[in-house]
Design goal:
Elements (H helix, E strand, L loop, with lengths): L1 H18 L7 E11 L4 E9 L8 E5 L6 E5 L1 E5 L2 E10 L9 E8 L5 E8 L4 H7 L7 E3 L4 E4 L1
Parallel strand pairs: 1-10
Antiparallel strand pairs: 1-2, 2-6, 3-4, 3-7, 5-6, 7-8, 9-10
Length: 152
């Protein structure tokens, strides 16, 4: 009798655990773009499109390739050409430090406790050349030669 009661209790607990499972979220697109300001200050803009039901409550933790640098933030919502993106352009390096290149990672934490992890590559070249080529530009400009956005 005791074994039967234990088996029934175990079955109930397993069914409750199965009913509490979370839907898996996915990232439909991840866009990372390195940038440099006219004064040489570098940063990264990172945005995702996700199928999460409430991404406005999403937190991100971004790590550089070494794992020694990280940025944690609540995402901003940005609409562009009818699509909603979540992320930040405030992933900035200390003054005088170059943005690390290589494979970065981002952990995304959702209100319901779900998490996602994505990796992405950051590459660029000729930071000084990009700044020089954009000297007379008064608005943000993408330099295809260096893969950098130059911001006045």
């Amino acid at each position: 009798m005791r074994n039967r009661a234990l088996a029934v209790l175990l079955a109930v607990l397993l069914s409750l655990a199965a009913s509490c499972s979370k839907d898996g979220f996915s990232v439909d697109m991840l866009q990372a773009q390195p940038y440099v300001r006219q004064g040489g200050h570098m940063g990264l803009s990172l945005y995702v499109i996700t199928d999460a039901k409430s991404p406005e409550a999403m937190q991100m933790v971004v790590r550089d390739p070494s794992g020694n640098l990280s940025w944690s933030f609540t995402v901003n919502e940005v609409s562009y050409e009818g699509q909603v993106y979540y992320g930040s352009s405030d992933i900035t390096m200390p003054a005088g430090s170059a943005l690390p290149t290589g494979t970065w990672s981002v952990d995304m934490y959702f209100r319901d406790g779900s998490t996602l992890n994505e990796s992405f590559d950051v590459s660029y070249s000729d930071c000084e050349g990009a700044i020089e080529r954009a000297q007379d530009v008064d608005e943000a400009w993408f330099d295809a030669d260096s893969n950098l956005t130059v911001i006045p």
